[in-house]
Each structure stands twice: as C-alpha cells, then as structure tokens.
Specification:
The complex is a heterotetramer, with two copies of chain A and two copies of chain B. In chain A, about 30% of the residues lie in helices and about 25% in strands. Chain A is α/β, with parallel strands linked by helices. Chain A has two domains: about 10-185, 3-Layer(aba) Sandwich (Rossmann fold); about 185-310, 2-Layer Sandwich (Hypothetical Protein Tm841, Chain: A,domain 3). Chain A has a six-stranded mixed beta sheet with strand order 1-2-5-3-6-7, with helices on both faces. A six-stranded mixed beta sheet of chain A has the order 10-9-8-13-11-12. A three-stranded antiparallel beta sheet of chain A has the order 4-14-15, covered by helices on one side. The radius of gyration of chain A is 19 Å and the shape is globular. By secondary structure, chain B is mainly α. Chain B has one domain: DhaL domain (Serine Threonine Protein Phosphatase 5, Tetratricopeptide repeat). At the C-D interface, helix 2 and helix 3 of C face helix 4 and helix 5 of D. The complex binds adenosine-5'-diphosphate (2 copies) and magnesium ion (MG) (4 copies). The site of one magnesium ion (MG) has 5 residues of chain B, from loops.
Chain lengths: ~325, ~210, ~325, ~210
C-alpha cells in the first residue's frame, strides 16, 4: 500500500487530530472523540444541523462543518456508520433548544444508528427530525426511490439546510428546505479504479483495467453497467442520460451542478467532464446557475467521478448563494 | 423446575466476551472472503471493552447484558453495533425484574431480542445474514418449549438449529450488506455475521446449561 | 489508462473549456487560448501579477487566478512550459500600466520562455520583473539555491505578491514582497506512485511498490533518497528534518504551512501527515500561524505529498490574511 | 565564389519541415527510451504550422527562417520552442541584409545561432543534449573555413561532425532535462534532441549544397 498512514486501525483517530489542528478557526473537538463541532455551536437561537457517516469521503463529512453549514458531525470508521452514541452526542452539541435537523445519507448502518440516537435524544427532550439523502439514481429504480443511497447530493442538502437554519428557519422549515433540496437532486457515479481500506490492505472490490462501472456507489456498491472505458464526452452523455430523465429536469430549468472526483482522479479531468456535461445540459435548454467542480465527496483513492444536479427555484438559489465557510465548501456572499 | 439465579449470570456474558476474543481472527477471515475482513475486529473491539468493564463489577445477568448492549451501541458503528446492541439490550430488559432465569424467562428474552433485531435490520431469512441463525435458533427453542421439553433440551435444540442455520448460509446468495455486491460469487462461503451469531448462541446455551447443572 | 479524457493530445484544451465555464465568476478567456485572466484584469492602478507553467498541477496554475491573487496565467502542455508568446500575452492582459510581476517556478523551459517574453514585452513598453521560486530543498544543495526548483511554495509567493499588489504596492514593492515570501519558504516532497501523461500513456518514471522517493520533484525529478515506505509519522520527521535546518527555522518562529497532496493521495492522509508535522514543529518551538492542508499543487495522479513552510513576519502575516478568492485558494478576510 | 541567392532559400526551410514531418515517429520513439516520448510530437507541431504558413508565401531564406523561429516560439513551449526558435531567429537575423549566401555569411549564421542557443540553454558539451551536435558541427564548419576549404566542403564537414556528435551522445549520461533523472540508466541510447538537431543540420547542408549546384 503506497499510503501515508501509521497504524491502519488508527487512521481515523490520526486524521481527526490533524484536522482539528489545521482548522481550529472553524471546528472544535468535543468530549466524544468521534464528534466534531462548529466552534460557535450550539449557535444561540438557531436550529442545529447535524450529519455523520463513515470516514474516507473527505471533505465529507467533517469538511462541511462551519459557518452556515453543519454544526456537529458524527464520525465513523472508514466506510462504516458512526455509532448511535456519536450521533446522539452530535445532537447534544448542536442543539441550542431549537431542535436538530439530522441530514444524512440512506445507508443501513446510518439509518439504524440515527434511529437509536433519536430515541436517546428524546429522553433528553431534544427534538430531532431527519432528512435522508437518496440522490443516487443508479442505486434503485425510481419506484423504489426510498431505497436509493445518498451520494454527493448530500452537499446540496447540507448547504441548503445549513443556510435555512442560519437565516433563522424553524426546525420544520429547515427540514422542509433540506428535503426540497434532496428531492430536487439527482446524482450518478462512474468508477474507474477501486480503493483500499488501510486496515484491510487490499482492494475491496474490482474494476478491471480497461473497464468502468457506471452507477457505482461510494463504497463500491454495484452499479448498473460495467463496460469498456469510454471517452470523457461519452461518460458525460451516459451520466446526463441517467440523471436528467429521472427527476426529470426539463427545458427552462436552472440547476446547480457538482462534478466531484472520487479521490484519485486528477482535477483536470473533472473539468474535461464538466465541459461536456454543461454542453449537453445547454442543448436540452437546462441552464447551469452555479457549478462546483472538484473533490467534494470522495472514496479514498478511488478513480472516477460523480455528477449531481439540483433543480433550483428562487428559495434554493437564495440559500445556495448564502456565504458559508468550511474546509470543503467556501462560498462568498453576493 | 430448571433455573439459575439472575445474580449468578454475569459469567454468561464473560463467556460471550471470551468466545469473541478467541475467534477474532477467524471471524475476520470469514468476512474477508466476501466482505471487507473486519468483522472480527469490529466485534472484538466492543466485546473486549465490555469485558474490561464487567471484570470487577458486581452485576447480575441483566446488568451484564445491558452493559454489553450499551457498549456495542457506543463503541461499534456500522450495522453490527445497533443490531447486536439491540439484541443484548432487549435480552437485558426482558429479565430485568426476574430473580430467576427459567425456560419461560429465556423464551421471552430470546424472542424479544429477535424481534428487536428483525425490526431494526429488516433482513429476511435467506438474505445471508445473521438472521439465518437467529430466526431458526429462536424457532427451535420455541418449538422445544411448546413440546414441553426441558430448558436444557430446548437450549440444545436452539444451539443445534443455530449451527444448521449458519451452515445454510453457505449456499445462499447475499442480498444484504457488502457481500451483496458479489451476486452469485457470494455463494459457497459462510456469512460472517452468521458465524459470529452461531458462536454467541452456542456460548449462551453452554453457559446456561453449566449454570443449570450447579 | 483509467482516466477521464477525450483525445490525449487535447486534454489541456478540453480542460480549459470546462474551467472557464465553471469559473466564469472569476476567470475569462483571452484572445490567446493558452492564456486565462482574472475577469477584472487589468485592474486599474494595480501592478499585474502573472504566472504560468505546465499543465497537470491543478489547482496550479490557473486555479490561482482571482481576486487579490494572479491576474493572468500562461498555460503550457502537460508538464511542459508555456510558450514565450503565452507569457508575453499574459503580461499584456495583466498590465494596467503599472508594470507586471511575473512570479514563476525555476524550470529550464519556464526560464527561457519568460526571458524571451520579457524581451517581447519590452518592445511594447511593458515593464516586467520576475521572482523565480526555488523552494524545493531537495533539488540542489543550499550553496546552489539558484538551481533549486519551485514547488508548492509558489502558492505562498502568489498569495503574498498578489496581496501586496492588491494593497497598492508598486512593482518593486510587489517583487520585494514575493521575493521575501519565497526566500523565507522551503519545501520537500515525498513520492509514492508515479503518474501517466495521457498523451504518453504509460508512467513517466518508476516508484517501486513498497518504496518511496524522498525529495521527488513535481514531474518525477529524482529526489535525495529512495527507501522503504515509512509510517506517516516517520515521513513527517524526514520532511521536517529536511526543511527546518535549511532556512533554518528556529525556536520562536511563526510559520505558515502547506501540506499538499500530489493528486491521488486521499486528503485524509494529508491530515495524518500534518498532525505529526505540527507536533514536530511545536517540539522545536516553531508555531504554526496558519495551515493549508489539501491539494494545492499536484502532479496528475501521483500519490505522495509535499510539506512547505514559510517563516512569517508582520508584513507577511498581514498579506497572508488578506481576503482572496480563486478556485484553488479562498481566504476570508479577518 | 560559391553562393546562392537569399531569395531562392525558402526551399531550405521547406525541406527542414519535410525532414521533421518524415521523422516525427522516430523522434518520439527515441525520446520514449529515456524521455517522455513527445519530442516528435512537439517538433512536428511547430514545423508543420510553419510549413502551412510558408506554402504560398513569397519569402526569402531570411524571412522563411524568421517564420520558422517565430512559429516555434509561439507554438512550442517547453525548452524546444525557445531553443530552436532562437536558433532559427538568429540565423534569420544574420542573413537579413545579405542578398547572397556564401560561406562567410553562413559562418556568421551558424555561429550566431549556436551562441544564442548556448546562452539561453546553458548546456555544456557532454550534458547529452542537442549541444553535443551543434557545437562540434559549428566547430567543424569553422575549421574548414579557416583551412580555406570550399563552402560545400565545409557544409559536408559540418554534416559529418553533426552525425558524429549525435552518435557520441549514446555513451553519455544525461545531466540536463528529463533524462537526467535516470542517471547511469540514460547511457546506451541516443539523446532525442541531438537526433533532431542532426537531422536539421544534415537537411540544411543538403539543401544548400543543392542550391549551390544550380
Ligand atoms: N440488515 C442486517 N440485518 C442483519 N444482519 C446484517 C444486516 N446487515 C449486515 N448484517 C450482518 O453483518 C455482517 C457484517 O458485519 P461487519 O463485517 O462487522 O460489518 P461491515 O459489513 O460493515 O464490515 C454480515 O455478515 C451480516 O451477517
Ligand atoms: N538546456 C538545454 N539545452 C539544449 N538542449 C536541451 C536543453 N534541455 C533539453 N534539451 C534537449 O531537449 C530534448 C527533449 O526535447 P522534448 O522531448 O521536445 O522536450 P521535453 O523534454 O520537455 O519532453 C532533449 O533530448 C535535449 O536534447
Ligand atoms: Mg467494515
Ligand atoms: Mg465487514
Ligand atoms: Mg515533454
Ligand atoms: Mg520529451
């Protein structure tokens, strides 16, 4: 393994220590070593915004702690849900008495741990409501949308939910905004190489050189098609053809777009991909209002990319444009 | 009637801890074949912490099970923490007010535990998970009690059904969890969770039979 | 090649098209397709700040175009200097009449092309002065500092030079500030895997699995030592032991730090590395004033990392803290 | 005295273009052994654009060389653009005001060109670069002129020295450019730049000898 690690079992601990040191202007540790919080959390009078998930997806999840974004994050082992305790502690760190919006991704482990954490929080009188991201089109047919996984679209869910909370929204309003964000968001990924969990030491799944996997998940969950590797333009077309009809996005729509690398793909190539995606959307009369190209939601050193689109209305635009400051996402206010 | 005292039951949980510790590498090895090879690590971490905590504690069976359940919920993320955490928490709750553990009390314990895990994890028989051990083991126990067999006999039936359940996963195709990625390729090897579940059920049965003999 | 590209010869063109689309709030194309400029350049009354270099180092170089950073950038082929024409055109796009500070890295091709571009600009009456980054400690002994290459320390050179220009510094003042920045900056890199230039199709150099190359350059230039791969903590120690004595950085110093990935190393691991670097610096009484951990200067899909430290004084601190907004670096003002 | 007219010299540059085009793949192949395999691509790009531009142009030798030099500076980055760009620009400048090209004019041209490249690139003999062709070729030409041999004989001497210079790089260890990474492993193969430089010198000599014969 050509990796920069100490003990493979300790990568999350070591990473968290470095992260807290590097970003002490934004984040703070808490009494639970697996929970980080925004330095000003709980923000008085504001609904708390919490997320959490397995590690190895940097900037997700802790990279989205910050001003007008998430207040506290529960941190799991690599590719493994945080404990119920961590979610519960994150709720406590984020709650200012206005309740907590827990905005997380649709994975079996996370669902179970959040559910148990909410029970614990209820005993303390902390009101927690959830939005479960399910933007990954390839992970289940449209009729079974509730089974779909959450992927890079979660970034929009946090941005919108975080902004609504920052503007003084009530818990129900924050939940409604975040739910609207994810309901209007669709994603798809293409995987080009697998990745290796340090404690495991060998790739978790296989992608044969010369092939690519369309619709792959963030942990190597199977996609919809394995085929010969295509040109960037053809990849863009496959992605657009999966994402656009699903919502559907239609002529006249304005969208926000994320093209995220999976970790090891050179950022140059993400721009090559975005170039064609934007062109294909324009051909369909769909206008890109704002785009985010870079590593926003990764899977260790996987190669490949995800494409995410969120259909906008005036409210979502205003919330998207609100200033925010985190390691993973910095937006200057207008 | 066969029974043992709740206050003598801590040893049951200590034996569970020992069982997992002794099988740590084996569990990871099994998980490595079609999973990510960390099942032994995940389980060992939680069970060992529980062992430390119980070592010098004055706890009865209920409190010991509760400690185990709580530790699993606190220390193991993923699916195993909440699933096994719920399993042992429910067991603990079902015997909290029982000074003595007899075959009816344990029937409540195991059925409540199964219900909790099933509700939380939503896996069905045949999905190639620990449910393929837990469901038949509980059914076998229930059937033995219905047939009015002794506590010990019911425990032995439960243990035997768990072993068979584990073996049955070998021929299954995974429909839940990581291994489901492999489709047909997941056939031919045991499911890691069902291996650990079988070990836990067997250990529970053996410990209780030993206590009954005292 | 598991990559997201169209024609391997056209990766730079395709990337530039996507980049301009994604960042039209910051950059603009120019009449030379190999020159991008800040949308407000030339900024009236401000010294122009220009850089340039080979492609494949994203965010470098075009990712540092933006507010209070670079005004125009000359773009080369992958790992190959831009043409003299491109540098010359970048000078023209950046110049508001106050002269141009060309802040670039010490590579044979860049030196030659900048030199020829300055001659061309002189004919037009554009005054151009240069700072040549040579922060890479491993690339030559201290006595031959002028032979050293420029690596991630260039980011500090641009930040400081760009800030000085933004605050109204004259050409000589901007040059002095940027020179001061680079004179106080030292870097070193460790390479873990090689990379493949798309048009070439196979790795350009070799790093055997299980080994690492200490002091490697951004294009695979040979380092000072090839050894068995070490733990992150040991890598941190090797890097600190190369960088600290060279300036030297001493007890009581305050520094800014960059820990940059080379492209394919998971960002998680950069924090693991930073954690130990910060600890080792603290042990020596050197305080980290500000740190930047992430992909700031990469080499396609190389694995590995660089460590850069800049010794600060009050002027450098003020310039470092000035707000800036680019794809690669966003700093919120205090 | 042997000479040809500046205004007839465009063909010399067109032949240079043809030479590079015909050897594009070979140059990349040589560069691939110890470099990054793009030397043919880099050279062909610039020379082909120059060929297009000259095709229908009414240009003398000086203007043709200037076009080539300018295109290389404009179209090829890296080191090759400025080095060969300077080479041809300096040649162009040295014959700008000369209606006729004779052995003294060419002496000025080649020496000025060498000086420009040397000043810019700072490579020494033995560094395993195109300087190992350019320096001995120029010296051989100078020596022949000193010995008062004919223009044609001097060009032939230059051509022969270029070939020998190219061959000499085979035994060298690269000290400049990409290949220097390989250290001892760079020994045993030709330097790509010296191969292209030898082709250019040979083409120059052949074209001029042909013009002299007219
Ligand atoms: N929903 C579920 N219900 C019951 N058991 C499950 C469920 N999901 C997974 N499992 C069990 O979890 C086991 C894997 O556990 P482990 O390796 O510790 O976690 P992970 O898969 O996250 O690495 C599987 O072998 C399976 O028996
Ligand atoms: N400073 C220099 N002076 C003279 N020739 C040089 C110098 N640096 C490099 N070269 C020549 O450049 C050649 C490589 O050219 P090319 O492959 O086109 O560029 P790159 O090395 O950037 O890929 C080398 O074979 C060498 O002859
Ligand atoms: Mg796991
Ligand atoms: Mg596992
Ligand atoms: Mg090259
Ligand atoms: Mg080359």
């Amino acid at each position: 393994m050509q990796r920069i690690i100490n003990k493979p079992d300790m990568v999350v601990e070591d990473m968290l220590k470095g992260f807290v040191k590097a970003h002490d202007d934004i984040v703070m540790p808490t009494s639970n070593p697996r929970v980080l919080k925004y330095k000003d959390a709980p923000v008085k009078g504001k609904v708390g915004v919490v997320t959490g998930g397995g590690s190895g997806h940097k900037p997700a999840f802790i990279g989205y702690i910050g001003k007008n974004l998430c207040d506290a994050v529960a941190v799991g082992e690599i590719f493994s849900s945080p404990t119920a305790q961590a979610f519960y502690d994150a709720f406590r760190e984020a709650d200012s008495g206005k309740g907590v919006a827990c905005l997380y991704g649709n994975y079996a482990g996370d669902n179970m741990n959040v559910k148990m954490a909410i029970e614990l929080a209820a005993d303390d009188g902390i009101e927690v409501k959830t939005v479960v991201a399910n933007d990954d089109v390839a992970s289940a047919p449209k009729e079974e949308r509730h089974k779909r996984r959450g992927v890079a679209g979660e970034v929009f869910m946090w941005k919108i939910g975080g902004a609504k909370a920052a503007l003084g929204g009530s818990l129900d309003e924050v939940i409604a905004a975040a739910q609207k964000a994810i309901d209007n968001t669709r994603s798809v990924g293409i995987g080009l190489t697998p990745c290796t969990i340090p404690a495991v030491g060998h790739p978790n799944f296989e992608i044969k050189p010369g092939t690519m996997e369309v619709g792959i998940g963030h942990h190597g969950e199977p996609g919809v098609e394995v085929c010969e590797i295509k040109t960037a333009d053809e990849m863009a077309k496959m992605m657009v053809d999966i994402v656009v009809p699903d919502l559907p996005f239609v002529e006249g729509d304005e969208v926000a777009v994320i093209v995220s690398g999976l970790g090891a793909t050179p950022v140059m190539e993400l721009y090559i991909l975005y170039n064609k995606i934007e062109e294909l959307l324009a051909e369909k009369g769909i206008k890109v209002y704002k785009s985010f190209v870079g590593n926003y939601f990764t899977s260790l050193e996987m190669m490949g990319a995800t494409f995410t689109a969120m259909k906008l209305d005036d409210e979502l635009k205003e919330l998207l444009d609100l200033e925010c400051n985190s390691m993973g996402l910095k937006v200057f206010g207008k | 009637m066969e029974k043992f005292l709740n206050k003598d039951g801590k040893v049951i949980v200590l034996n569970l801890v020992k069982t997992i510790q002794e099988n740590k590498d084996y569990l990871s090895e099994v998980d490595g074949l079609i999973g990510d090879g960390d099942h032994g690590i995940n389980m060992n971490k939680g069970f060992t912490i529980c062992g430390e905590r119980l070592k010098d504690a004055d706890a009865d069976l209920s409190e010991s099970l509760k400690t185990l359940g709580r530790v699993l919920l606190t220390e193991i993320g993923g699916s195993m923490g909440p699933l096994y955490g719920t399993f042992f928490n429910r067991m603990a709750r079902s015997c909290k007010d029982e000074p003595e553990i007899n075959r009816d009390v344990f029937k409540k314990m195991i059925n409540e535990a199964l219900a909790g895990v099933s509700e939380l994890g939503n896996a069905k028989r045949g999905d190639k998970t620990l449910m393929d051990v837990l469901i038949p083991a509980t059914e076998a126990y229930n059937k033995a009690i219905e047939e009015n067999r002794s506590f010990k006999e019911a425990l032995l039936a439960m243990k035997e059904a768990a072993r068979e359940g584990m073996e049955s996963t070998r021929d299954m195709v995974a429909r839940v969890g990581r291994a489901s990625r492999l489709g047909e390729r997941s056939r031919g090897v045991l499911d890691a969770g069902s291996v650990s579940c079988n070990l836990l059920i067997a250990s529970l049965a053996d410990s209780m039979i030993a206590l009954l003999a005292n």
